[in-house]
Write a structure and sequence with these properties.
heterodimer, A: alpha+beta, 8-stranded antiparallel barrel, two-stranded antiparallel ribbon, elongated, B: mainly beta, 11 strands, 56% strand
């Protein structure tokens, strides 16, 4: 697990450093003027957030469209939306993620339905916090909670008691788990960014030992029978700057 | 984007292996020696069903008792060479979806005694299971001592 995360980090680091090589020379030369100007004025606190980023996950959006086409918007049997928000505090990001999940599984002689929401909060450490373009390569932690409900309707055949249809449901289930994250955030324009987050999910609790229905899915986590899971989001991100970016000042 | 595509198409579904059973295995044993005992069964019936599970069997060491997934207890009436005995057992049913390809599975767990007229009974496996093989064998759950 950790070898995979570390290898991802190395690939990311090499990509970003390669991408910055051509820009580093002019940046260092031209940054000198604003830096001098800033030193005369009051020095800004490095812990002051510079902007708010909000993102929409295109992977979960794509899964619904892949399965149901345009119906995913309205009446598909898979609907999942994930949103993220983060603010930067020096080299750290404080993240909040929210997701909504709804899906029907249509299986032989049975239909299963699961619906719920989840939140994830936690910090990231940005290894490129000095980048004037504010691109980010990060690792982080998340604490995640999910609240959901499910039901199953199934037919069974029994030679002694006869054939029957049964419905079993869980009213409200809660699960929590932890995640190790890593990823990239890349500036496309001043307001539009893209990026991805890869995550390893672990230590999920199961509070449904005596329930008549064992949940098949935990929204935000994945298959409920797995002790750990992987996840990937590809974000389309919009950034609201709190002040003028360095790169804008340079221009 | 390539990684995102892999995640879109790369999900594995579990194999359709079912070990859960709705049939309980009962074995007969000698109360003095603990050895398996072959007995004569005149009639075996469960309350709530018109079916007779076993009738006029001269010698058997075990019987299979189907449980109702829509119920939480079973009442079985044994008419054997030792007389008429009633066995009432309670249980929990747990349903789970294996996958979209495999469908649902009903698991019967926490088998426990509610009433027993036999000399003694012992639970050896409180969950109903089958053992996979050339012919799937119902695991023994309860031992009845006469």
């Amino acid at each position: 697990m950790f070898r995979f995360l570390i290898s991802i980090l190395f690939v990311q680091a090499s990509l970003i450093s390669f991408g910055q090589q051509t820009e580093s020379q002019p940046d260092s030369a031209t940054i000198a003027k604003p830096a001098l100007k800033d030193s005369i004025q009051k020095a800004p606190s490095k812990f002051k957030p510079t902007g708010l980023r909000v993102g929409l996950d295109l992977v979960s959006f794509g899964q619904g469209v892949q399965k149901n086409g345009i119906r995913a918007f309205t009446q598909g049997d898979v609907r999942q939306w994930k949103f993220s928000a983060d603010i930067d505090i020096y080299r750290y990001f404080l993240n909040f993620e929210y997701g909504k999940f709804e899906r029907y599984w249509i299986a032989p002689a049975s239909n299963y339905y699961n619906e719920g929401t989840f939140i994830k909060v936690g910090p990231d450490i940005n290894f490129f916090h000095k980048d004037p373009k504010q691109n980010a390569l990060f690792i982080g932690l998340r604490y995640a909670r999910s609240k959901y409900q499910d039901y199953i309707i199934y037919d069974y055949q029994n030679q002694v008691y006869g054939d029957n249809t049964k419905r079993v449901s869980n009213g409200e289930l809660k699960s929590n788990w932890f995640e190790i994250t890593t990823g990239l955030k890349v500036r496309l324009t001043r307001y539009v960014w893209s990026g991805y987050t890869a995550r390893f999910k672990f230590r999920v609790n199961d509070n449904y030992e005596n329930n008549a229905l064992a949940p098949h899915w935990i929204p935000g986590y994945g298959a409920a029978t797995r002790e750990s899971a992987w996840g990937l989001e590809y974000w389309l991100i919009f950034r609201v700057p709190f002040k003028k970016d360095k790169i804008e000042e340079i221009k | 984007m390539f990684l995102a595509y892999l995640f879109l198409v790369g999900c594995n579904e579990p194999d359709c292996i079912r070990l859960a059973s709705t049939t309980m295995g009962i074995g007969f044993y000698d109360i003095n020696t603990g050895d398996a005992l072959a007995i004569r069964v005149n009639r075996l019936q469960v309350v709530g069903s018109d079916s007779v599970l076993m009738e006029n069997v001269t010698s058997t060491r075990s019987v299979l008792l189907p449980l109702n997934p829509s119920d939480t207890s079973v009442t079985a009436v044994f008419d054997t060479e030792f007389g008429i005995d009633t066995l009432i057992l309670s249980y929990n049913t747990v349903t789970r979806l294996i996958s979209e390809e495999c469908g649902a599975e009903i698991m019967i767990e926490n088998l426990r005694r509610a009433r027993n007229d036999f000399d003694s009974i012992r639970f050896v496996n409180r969950s109903l299971q089958i053992t996979l093989g050339e012919s799937n064998i119902v695991t023994e759950n309860v031992q009845i001592f006469n």
